[in-house]
Amino acid sequence: MKASSEKKNAAKKSHVADIPLVEWIIGAVGMVIVVTAVGVLLREALAGDKSPPDVKLTVHAIAPLRNGYLVKLRAENEGGEPAARVGITVELVEKSKVVEAAETQFEYLPAHSVRDAGVFFARDPREGELRLQVHGYEEP
């Protein structure tokens, strides 16, 4: 029996010796990547940013169209939590009076992300002041 177990051990050793060094290196690199990814995910799950959604709105561009004007908006969620169905109101104000308003919504705004949208106006928004306001969201 001792001879058969020695043969098995010798076969295992020769099989391990047959694996090229490049395969060992690639396997080690793959293991480091997997362990790092799991570590990052665990750290985010346990100690990540849990602040509420904090949506910052900016006007990205204004483009004249055949039937009006397109105001391109950019929303940036600076908070640590995502937001769903983020309601946005854009008002065109001239001489302290709201002359036109438009609404849109972002279906999903992940944490620390940027999304673009647009609203349409009949009047030229460059001739007045644009007021941007987030008026609500849902927790996804």
Chart the SSEs and their pairings:
Layout: H1 2-18, H2 21-47, E1 55-65, E2 68-77, E3 83-94, E4 97-109, E5 113-121, E6 129-138
Antiparallel strand pairs: 1-2, 2-5, 3-4, 3-6
Task: Sketch the topology as an H/E string, one letter per element.
Answer: HHEEEEEE
> Which stretches of 5+ consecutive residues score pLDDT under 50?
none
Name the structural class. Answer: alpha+beta
Task: Kindly report the CATH topology of the largest domain.
Answer: Immunoglobulin-like
What global shape is seen? elongated
What is the number of beta strands?
6
CATH class of the largest domain: Mainly Beta
Roughly what fraction of the amino acids lie in strands?
over 45%
Q: What Rg do the Cα atoms give? A: 29 Å
Tally the helices: what do you get?
2
Q: Please give the share of residues in helix.
A: 25-40%
CATH architecture of the largest domain: Sandwich
Structure description:
- The chain has 140 residues and is α+β, with helices and mostly antiparallel strands.
- The protein has 2 domains: 46 residues; 84 residues, Lipoprotein YajI-like (Immunoglobulin-like), CATH 2.60.40.1620.
- It is built from 2 helices and 6 strands, in the order H-H-E-E-E-E-E-E.
- The strands form 2 sheets. A 3-stranded antiparallel β-sheet has the order 1-2-5, with no helix packed on it. It has a 3-stranded antiparallel β-sheet with strand order 4-3-6, with no helix packed on it.
- Strand 3 and strand 4 form a beta hairpin.
